[in-house]
Amino acid sequence: MTTEPERRDRLTLGTVGRAHGIRGEVRLHLHNAASTALVPGLAVQLQHADTVRIIEVVAVAKTNEPAIRRVHFDRIDSREAADALRGATVTVARGALPPLEADEYYHVDLVGCVVTTPAGRAVGRVRTVHTTNIDVLEVVTPGDVELLVPVTADFVVTIDVAGRSVVVVEDLEDRFVEAK
User: Fold this and answer.
1) Residue 107 has what pLDDT?
2) Are 26 and 73 in contact (CB under 8 A)?
3) Which among 14, 39, 17 is positioned nearest to 84, based on CA atoms?
4) What pLDDT sits at residue 103?
5) N- to C-terminal Cα distance for the chain?
6) Which of 61, 96, 131 is the last residue of a domain?
7) 1 in any annotated domain
8) CA-CA distance, 10 to 157, in Å (whole number)?
9) pLDDT tens digits, residue range 50-95?
10) Residues 15 and 90 in one domain
11) Which of the ends of the chain has fewer CB neighbours closer than 10 A, N or C?
12) What is the CA radius of gyration of the chain?
């Protein structure tokens, strides 16, 4: 889930979970279970509390859970060192990732997009993007109502990342689920 504006030159891959084994591996909780960006040799940034460090990925292994990978970082060689990383946010330079296809986007690129209907009526702005089986936009209306909008053809007409806009169906308010 993307919850706050991030620097657009860095993208968050996930969060470090508990240590795995005794040789320094950690469980990394990915924001995107389908991501293939995490590969050996990739330089990532770990931010934990007030500490930021650049570190290289040495090894990556899948687990039985689709959104979790076992990761070994350079110079992290013990369970204690791995456990000290718990809760760290893992980001990567946008330029280190492969180019996106025409219909793909990064969640961070949708945060702040203006949401309108095909007729041009303002609906609100994207506050966050939640990931479940599908992406769900959290849109805040001018009246501070929060709408959860699934990114499906039934709700979203177009997404224009370059134009910073999302067009939703005309009768969206009749279909929305209010965020609690």
Assistant:
1) 86
2) yes
3) 17
4) 81
5) 16
6) 96
7) no
8) 28
9) 899 999 999 999 998 888 899 999 999 999 999 999 999 999 998 8
10) yes
11) C
12) 18
| Contacts (Cβ under 8 Å, ≥6 apart) of 173 | 123, 147
Helices and strands in the chain: count of H runs, count of E runs: 3, 13
The answer to whether residues 17 and 28 touch, using CB atoms and an 8 Å cutoff, is: yes
Nearest-angstrom CA–CA distance, 167 and 114: 8
Q: What is the CATH number of the domain that holds 133?
A: 2.30.30.240
Q: Is the dihedral of CA 32, 89, 95, 129 positive or negative?
A: positive
* Count of domains forming the chain: 2
Burial class (CB in 10 A: 0-12, 13-18, 19+), 153: exposed
41 contacts: CB under 8 Å, gap ≥ 6? 56, 57
Cα angle 77, 31, 49 (rounded to 5 degrees) comes to: 55
According to DSSP, residue 100 is labeled P
Order of strands across the sheet with 177-178?
Answer: 156-160, 165-168, 114-116, 122-131, 135-140, 146-150, 177-178
Say how far apart CA 108 and CA 131 lie, in whole Å.
12
Q: Is the pLDDT assigned to residue 24 strictly greater than 90?
A: yes
Tokens standing for residue 109: 């690129």
The one-letter amino acid code at 7 reads R
Q: Give the whole-number percent of the chain exceeding pLDDT 90.
A: 62
Both structure tokens of 66: 């689709």
